[in-house]
Design goal:
Blueprint: H1 23-38, H2 54-66, E1 76-89, E2 92-99, E3 102-109, H3 110-113, H4 115-124, E4 130-139, E5 145-156, H5 172-177, H6 179-185, H7 187-209, E6 213-214, E7 220-221, E8 233-236, E9 241-245, H8 250-258, E10 263-271, E11 283-292, H9 296-315, E12 319-321, E13 328-330, E14 336-339, H10 340-348, H11 358-367, H12 378-390, E15 398-401, E16 413-414, E17 417-421, E18 423-428, E19 431-432, E20 434-438, H13 443-458, H14 469-476, E21 482-488, H15 489-497
Parallel strand pairs: 3-5, 6-10, 14-15
Antiparallel strand pairs: 1-2, 1-4, 2-3, 4-5, 7-9, 8-9, 10-11, 11-21, 12-13, 15-18, 16-17, 18-19, 18-20, 20-21
Helix pairs in contact: 6-7, 7-9, 7-15, 10-12, 11-12, 13-14
Length: about 525
């Protein structure tokens, strides 16, 4: 460890109790921290040198070895965290260094480093410390590619011990609250979030390649809309008015089409003031795209092609196996097309077109002994039937299409049967990934539907949004025929990583405050 010329900073005393329990371990690490500073060494230096990631250094050695060499490259500078035990063997010490690309063994030897530097490393290093290790790559007698260390520089002294290596971090509450420890302890978790990044990148690449333009719309909105949900609200002091975190970006993206953009998309955070379960979070990531001169049939083809392309880019295959012995899902086109009317009849025996009033539908449900939570309207009761009986049957990719118009206030009616809307939901693994319409672009009918939603809101349905007069005015200027789509990014990541709880694919999920 190399000293510097700066004096130790004032105020090195730290309140152990402020850092939590495990006082003896903390005290020992604090003593080592103060010893480093007393030696004139900055344990948190502002700059580092790095020549290789660990995986690159190992690959470079493999290339040299394949050409007949047995040592090198030299002058390697690796940076990362010390993980696992520090194993002392006479005049040597072994420890592993981990960076994002992988891990490599460090071999510290007294006769190579010198008595003073080797002794300092023995006395001052702990698992969890970030260090820079300089040296030469070689293969040990045990066959492990390692770094023969010439010098170790402290980059950040760890004052808290890491979770025990072999048992890992298993407590769900701790894993979610301290995701950084979860990723450190569980390689599969760290890889899941790397995979999530690849999925989002592949989604952008696909849409960009289809001529869609990425745009940004407001997160704070004076009127929330584009969905049925209770919003989060705040007060905008400078304007003196109430604002809402968006529940969807739909209505602003449609304004872009009124303005002459023909293919737009946005990947953004939406917010809905609702409960948490395995597929719902109050803060979630959505991709919405709008395609002028297309309809929901065009968008169905887009979805099955896009999901397959993303799966190939992120996983190298269009097949996904669900956890706990679940089935294998094939995401390649074509996906099943299933109308809501047929789906409900096939799974429950009820023809919702015949049982077309709330009383008739409730009677049909009772006659068959089905268990459905009571709902105030016919449409919401149909939605309950779909959620309880249809969606669990859609393990393989399915487009559930042609929903009742009463459930689809922003979608066009089917020309051949105006009771149903040109709408579909892509469903995989038993839950919906998103929503799509042939978008309603008739401003008169759209206002009528908004007014009906306002009547439902006045009757006590607090998930209905208020009337957005500015959006109606935009539609009155003319919006081309459009196919729209919203895909829940978190849910798509669930499917592509075989993870059946949304909190496991969100880095820092909402949690109740610890007392």
């Amino acid at each position: 460890m190399a000293p510097n010329d700066d004096p130790p900073p004032a105020g090195t005393e730290i309140d152990i109790d402020a850092l939590g329990g495990m006082a003896q371990l903390l005290a020992a690490r604090l003593e080592r921290l103060q010893a480093i500073r007393a030696a004139g060494i900055d344990p948190y230096p502002p700059r580092v040198e790095r020549t290789h990631m660990t995986a690159d250094a190992v690959a470079a050695f493999d290339t040299i070895e394949a050409a007949g060499g047995d040592e090198g490259p030299a002058g390697v500078k690796l940076c990362g965290r010390l993980v696992g035990a520090l194993r002392r063997m006479g005049g040597s010490m072994f420890v592993h260094l981990q960076d994002q690309s992988g891990t490599v063994q460090l071999h510290l030897r007294r006769d190579r480093m010198g008595e003073a530097d080797f002794g300092a490393a023995i006395d001052r290093l702990d698992p969890g410390d970030f260090v820079q290790a300089d040296g030469t790559m070689f293969r040990t007698r045990a066959g492990e590619v390692s770094l023969a260390v010439d010098r170790v520089t402290m980059l950040a002294k760890s004052l808290r011990p890491l979770p025990e290596k072999w048992r890992g971090l298993t407590d769900v509450e701790t894993r979610l609250r301290q995701r950084y420890l979860d990723m450190l302890s569980n390689e599969s978790v760290r890889q899941r979030f790397i995979q999530r990044s690849l999925i989002v990148r592949a989604m952008r690449t696909f849409l960009d390649g289809r001529g869609f333009l990425e745009v940004e719309t407001p997160t704070l909105q004076p009127i929330y809309g584009g969905g049925a949900a209770r919003p989060f609200e705040t007060h905008y002091h400078a304007l003196g008015q109430t604002m809402y975190l968006r529940i969807a970006d739909e209505l602003y993206l449609k304004r872009c089409l009124v303005g002459g953009l023909e293919r737009v998309y946005e990947i953004c955070k939406d917010f809905r003031n609702e409960g948490i379960d395995r597929t719902h979070m109050p803060e979630f990531t959505m991709m919405e795209c709008y395609w002028a001169y297309a309809d929901y049939n065009d968008v169905m083809a887009l979805v099955e092609e896009m999901v397959a392309a993303i799966a190939l880019a992120a996983n190298g295959t269009t097949r996904v196996t669900l956890p706990d012995g679940g089935p294998e899902i094939e995401l390649a086109p074509p996906w099943r097309r299933w109308t809501v009317r047929d789906a409900v009849q096939d799974t429950t025996g009820i023809d919702i077109a015949a049982a077309d009033t709330l009383a008739a539908l409730r009677a049909a449900i009772a006659e068959r002994g089905l268990h459905v939570a009571p709902q105030p309207t016919w449409a919401k009761t149909v939605d309950e039937l779909v959620g309880d009986y249809v969606e669990p049957q859609c393990v393989q990719p399915t487009f559930l299409m042609d929903h009742p118009v009463a459930l689809s206030p922003l979608a066009k009616r089917k020309p051949d049967d105006p009771r149903w809307a040109e709408r579909f939901e892509p469903i995989v693994a038993g839950f919906e990934l998103g929503n799509s319409f042939s978008e309603l672009n008739d401003p008169i009918e759209q206002r009528e539907r908004f007014e009906e939603m306002a009547r439902q809101k006045a009757a006590g349905d607090d998930e209905q949004p208020p009337i957005d007069d500015d959006f109606i005015e935009a539609l009155a200027h003319g919006m081309p025929p459009t196919g729209g789509l919203g895909i829940g990014v978190d849910r798509l990541v669930m499917v592509l990583t075989g993870t059946m709880n949304i909190r496991e694919v969100v880095l820092f999920p909402a949690m109740r405050t610890e007392e």
